[in-house]
Design brief:
Length: about 775
């Protein structure tokens, strides 16, 4: 006989792990007990030694699909003579070693229940089990038990309690379990909060079909919804939300509905139907008849499938395709509270479809795409957070580190016990509401992980709100991290690299150590430090951020930088309606007044987009680059090798570590003069950026030969650039690593900050010296 105590750590609460252990013990004819504890799932198992060992092997081999085991500790104990096996009440307090699972899309069994007229969960919009439903968005604390979730205010009826306490039922200890008799309820109300009489489901479908805009409360916040085929409704939603151009996500009834309008390959279908159920950016089919207003000027569309019972019921009849965009004004935090939504969204929504289950943790939809068969995140949030990733720190990490993130597309990252926990999408910190959301989300995350950071790493930019909040934190070591070094470290970390690399960091902007705006960088470095090997030539940006919002101003700056005496005439010709403004810009450039120097990939894209007449003013970040890239679709039936052979870049110059795009700009102008189609010029421009990357890498690596290369920064969300640049470098011997687990944009920046913070703390602070270069 053998008796063993097991401590199982990881994502093991809220995923059906205890009933799994119970069934496993019964199968092996073993006695003992299992319970949730602050540090994980605890098991005492007793029986014949060979059966105990088979039981232990089966834990990792057969674990529930949603479980993620990060460690199992074993201790031999004296046999007690257990007569059976039992699941007992939770014990202990949270130690931060248990991982709350992400929210999970409705499983097939629960979907059948809500559509089955004979089931007691028929048409109930909060049906769930241990395999699906809310997790992170409802949890208040650990261990993960009902009283520590927002379901504590909904006592179970006898029928639900019977399922909840039956170890062989799939709803055993599913904390959000409920039914129409005892659980949360849905209401349909008008802008004054008055409930509409009648069947909320039938009324909601009717309103959507009639072109009305509904604010719908989901798992992690409100959505604003309307019929995705109704052009008038979409225009009205855009006008009310103040979102003139940024693409709107849609939700399709099923895969067949999505496939009517978009190209869906097996990998994309797998993502759409996965437990995470993210928004997947898909290519529209040729001749797609959906309104252009869904994604103006774009060849793609962000699509998701229903991931809650409420969504499934709403879309079973009525419109089969709904706009489902975040329930907020542009760049403001997502609404999660009913009264807050009524006050904030009444100017946008005609009606509100809400419920009375509180949302504890705000969590927006995740957004992904597929590039060369691999997943790339635009936004990592619902369905993935708070799942951690293993990162290269020694000794399981001796200190807890906070990476504060950026001011746009913000996430923060807590590095603890060798694992990086990235937050949900926080978004823009440029408002008091954004700051409050950041502070509140951080406090909840720290409590959930029982994490008290001793080191805080943040962006070097002195004016970033995230940096100001980080610097204000007391009793911590403060470490400033240059923006593009953090990008390099983020890509290293998610690929588990722990050796020097060359980083090609392409993005819109990042504060450089020289005070200029960087964004086209070839860096050599590791987590401790970096050296800037090459960069794009600086161009003065008249008006600073104003030039970013108005790409035509950036184009004027490029003309004055590279076209000499011809610049005034060219600027007047391309932007004929801006005569007086051009004169002001010219004086500012010549005098160096409010014209900060910038050398970024984003601004180069802006300039070319404006010169081609593609986009002269933007209403969302990166719009000009996105619309320019839409002129360069991947040709049907052409593989990467063939495209790489046919690259046709404009000439450019590299001298003394500076990459000059002068000949690219003059080449674009010459092609425009000769009437070359915009699509051809746009492709040649993209080819030029690829060629600049390849030649810059060759120059940087010349001293030490081929090296490992990481790509990071928002510009690498361009499929054409990423695929061809990676292919061209791999063909000449480089090993190229890209982002697959966190976004290449600033949504992944906090991961890199946390890693740099950890290694600098270990290298410098522990030794009583300064926290290293650029700090």
């Amino acid at each position: 006989m053998q008796r063993v105590a097991l401590k199982i750590e990881g994502t093991v609460q809220g995923v059906g792990f205890r009933p799994f252990i119970y069934r496993l013990a019964r199968r092996h004819s073993l006695g003992g007990k299992v319970w949730n504890a602050g540090e994980g799932v605890m098991v005492e198992i007793e029986g014949r030694a060979e059966r105990v060992q088979d039981f232990i092997k089966s834990i990792t081999a057969e674990a529930p699909a949603l479980a993620r085991i990060t460690g199992i500790e074993m201790e031999e104990l004296a046999p007690l003579g257990y007569a059976g096996f039992a699941i007992i009440h939770s014990q202990g307090v949270a130690e931060g070693r248990v991982i709350v699972p992400p929210d999970v899309a409705t499983c097939g069994d629960c979907r059948q229940d809500i559509l089955n007229p004979t089931d007691r969960h028929y048409r109930y919009p909060f049906t769930n089990c241990t395999n699906c439903g809310p997790r992170f968005t409802i949890v208040r604390g650990l261990p993960y038990d009902r009283e520590k979730t927002s379901m504590r205010d909904f006592p179970m009826c006898a029928a639900c309690a019977a399922e909840y306490t039956n170890p062989l039922d799939r709803r055993f200890h599913a904390q959000p379990v409920a039914c129409p008799a005892c659980g949360p309820q849905v209401s349909l109300v008008d802008r004054q909060g008055r409930q509409l009489p009648g069947d909320w489901l039938a009324l909601s479908r009717t309103l959507l079909a009639a072109g009305q805009i509904l604010a719908i409360k989901g798992l992690g916040g409100f959505h604003l919804a309307c019929d995705a085929r109704n052009q008038r409704a979409i225009r009205e939603l855009r006008e009310r939300k103040n979102r003139p151009h940024k693409p709107l996500a849609v939700m399709g009834r099923d895969l067949e509905t999505v496939a009517e309008h978009c190209q869906v390959d097996p990998v994309e279908a797998g993502l759409l139907t996965s437990p995470a159920a993210p928004i997947v950016v898909l290519r529209k089919k040729p001749g797609c008849r959906l309104p252009e207003e869904l994604a103006p000027g774009q060849a793609s569309l962000g699509v998701m499938l229903p991931y809650t019972p409420l969504h499934i019921l709403l879309m079973a009849e009525g419109p089969s395709l709904l706009v489902m965009t975040s329930g907020n004004y542009s760049e403001m935090p997502l609404c999660i509270d009913n009264q807050e939504a009524l006050e904030s969204l009444s100017p946008i929504a005609d009606y509100f479809l809400w419920h009375n289950r509180p949302i504890v943790n705000r969590c927006d939809d995740s957004v992904v795409t597929i590039v060369a068969g691999e997943t790339q995140f635009y936004r990592r949030s619902r369905g993935y957070v708070p799942s951690p990733m293993e990162v290269p720190v020694d000794g399981q990490g001796r200190v807890t580190v906070l990476g504060a993130g950026s001011d746009l597309k913000n996430t923060f990252c807590i590095l603890k016990d060798g694992r990086a926990f990235l937050s949900q999408h926080i978004g823009d910190l440029g408002s008091l509401e954004g700051e409050a959301n950041y502070q509140e989300s951080l406090a909840k995350f720290k409590a959930l992980l029982n994490a008290g950071p001793r080191v805080v790493a943040f962006d070097l930019h002195p004016g970033y709100q995230s940096s100001l909040m980080a610097r204000a934190m007391g009793d911590v070591v403060h470490i400033a991290v240059q923006h593009h070094h953090a990008h390099l470290a983020a890509c290293m970390a998610e690929n588990y690299l722990n050796e020097p690399v060359i980083g090609v960091i392409l993005d819109g902007t990042g504060y450089g150590v020289d005070g200029c705006s960087w964004g086209f960088e070839v860096l050599r470095g590791d987590y401790l430090q970096f050296k800037r090997e090459l960069h794009l030539d600086y161009v003065p940006l008249p008006g600073g951020d104003n030039a970013v919002r108005h790409p035509w101003r950036t184009a004027v700056a490029y003309l004055y930088r590279y076209c000499g005496a011809e610049a005034p005439g060219l600027a007047s010709r391309f932007f004929a309606d801006k005569g007086e403004e051009i004169e002001i810009l010219a004086r500012a450039i010549q005098a160096g007044l409010n014209a900060p120097l910038a050398g970024s990939c984003g601004r180069l894209f802006d300039a070319v987009a404006a010169l081609l007449g593609v986009c002269q003013d933007i209403s969302y970040e990166g719009q000009a680059a996105v619309e320019l890239s839409n002129l360069v679709p991947w040709p049907a039936g052409v593989d990467t090798e063939e495209l790489a052979r046919d690259l046709s870049p404009y000439p450019f110059e590299i001298k003394e570590g500076v990459i000059s795009p002068r000949l690219i700009i003059t080449g674009v102008l010459a092609d425009l003069e000769q009437g070359v189609p915009k699509e051809v010029i746009a492709r040649r421009f993209h080819d030029s950026v690829i060629a600049m990357v390849v030649e810059a890498l060759k120059s940087a690596a010349r001293a030490s030969g081929p090296a490992k290369v990481v790509f990071s920064g928002g510009s690498w969300q361009n499929h054409y650039l990423l695929t061809l640049a990676k292919y061209c470098l791999e063909e000449i011997g480089y090993q190229v690593f890209v982002h697959h687990r966190v976004p290449p944009n600033d949504g992944g920046l906090s991961l890199g900050q946390a890693l740099v913070g950890y290694w600098r703390w270990k290298q410098y602070v522990c030794r009583g010296t300064d926290a290293g270069p650029n700090s």
